[in-house]
Amino acid sequence: MATDAHPTPETSEIEGRIVEFLHRELLEPGVTIGRDADLLSGEVIDSIGILRLATFVGEEFRIVIQPADFVVENFRSVAVIAGYVVRALAAHGPGDTRP
Amino acid sequence: MEFEWTADQLRLRRGAVEFARARLVEGVAGRDREGTFSREAWQACAEFGLQGLLVPAEWNGGGQDLLSAVAVFEGLGYGARDNGLVFSVAAHAASCEGPLCAFGSEAQKREWLPGLAEGSVIGATAITEPDSGSSALSLATTAVPHDDGWRLQGSKTFVTNGPVADLFIIYARTGPGVGGVTAFLVPRHTSGLVVGAPIEKMGLRTSPMSQVFLEDCWVPASAVVGGVGSGALIFSQVMEAERLLVMAPAIGVMQRLLERCVAHARQRKVGSVPIGKHQAIAHRLADMDVQLEAARLLLYRAAWQRARHGTATRESAMAKLAVSEAYVETCRSAVQIFGTYGYTVEYELERELRDALAATLYVGTSEIQRNLIAGLRGLG
What we know:
heterodimer; A: Non-ribosomal Peptide Synthetase Peptidyl Carrier Protein, Chain A; 49% helix; globular; B: alpha+beta; Butyryl-CoA Dehydrogenase, subunit A, domain 2; Butyryl-CoA Dehydrogenase, subunit A, domain 3; 3 domains
């Protein structure tokens, strides 16, 4: 359950933060992506990029990404990732307290 | 922040040390010389519960988490002399059982996990290719849809446990990009899967290794692990756990060698003075001590994070890099401190050094770990 100190963000806000991270850290200048664009099937993100994206998602939304959750069904696109974050927060709330 | 093991973890570690001293010491020199894998020792490990340590209890495993497994494998390194066999068990657990436990279907778990946990089935993972190194995305091996299944074509190399494995997890390209790699579960006797001759190695000679060839190797759709296209993501998770599990014994070996070197430096005299009185020796031992503790803490921290917080990509890469390089340096120092005795087969330090040298190569070279650590900072 989310606490008042860390209110659960709206899906659109989650998507916005992910897109901002992608543009700032992973995408080539001038490249834009839609919320449903496939991040994994082309040249958009490389093998280290997907790890950076997963690390960002875990830290930014304070969720614990279990190894079994790290599959294409949860990381295929911005919209899919946001849906995964919403489900993780609903199930467990913010739980990442790593130093 | 706690820096203490639980009573259960300490009990597990002590048990592993006692088991390893009793069952994984005798005959190692001969097996190393001949390059033979001991099925008897493998089965003894299974009966002790090593192969099933990380497998859930419902599949006949021990149901331990990674941090507890690290404690056990550290104990093995401390007590055993057969570094190759311990490496084979760790690879089996991390790279074959690990993805099955996390990503396998219920049917796959039901069919394979009990045998893997009991040691009657030996597992292996085939990712590296002759021209690709360990990059999960540079695969030339392909899998194409065929007759309600997949047809695999290509070759793999440096497959730990390959010559004795009953079950392989094979990574193949099924499309472009990060989402174009898929993991397949392929039993040894599948038509089209050919295991090459054992590869002779410098160290870890009791852990067998081979090539694996896939020649129109058809597998059913049910052989896919974790969904089509999830192979690179699965592999990244496998590597995280494997980096930690295979390096845990190195901490135990370093501890054992440090204690042996300290005892030697206090007892061995040149003239009437113990060699440990000389700063050249004392400082080298101090450096070994510091390197061990630094490596140990990085390993524990990464395993703790993985057990508590799911993933530990950066931390596991840092731990793997630090432990492997400290391990090699410790073994080099041990040989040096023992002088020419350290170079003889009888003193068994040359074997420790040969075994250790592989640590900066397997499960991603030191260069790959640095690439990953830097890449996670947005560099390179």
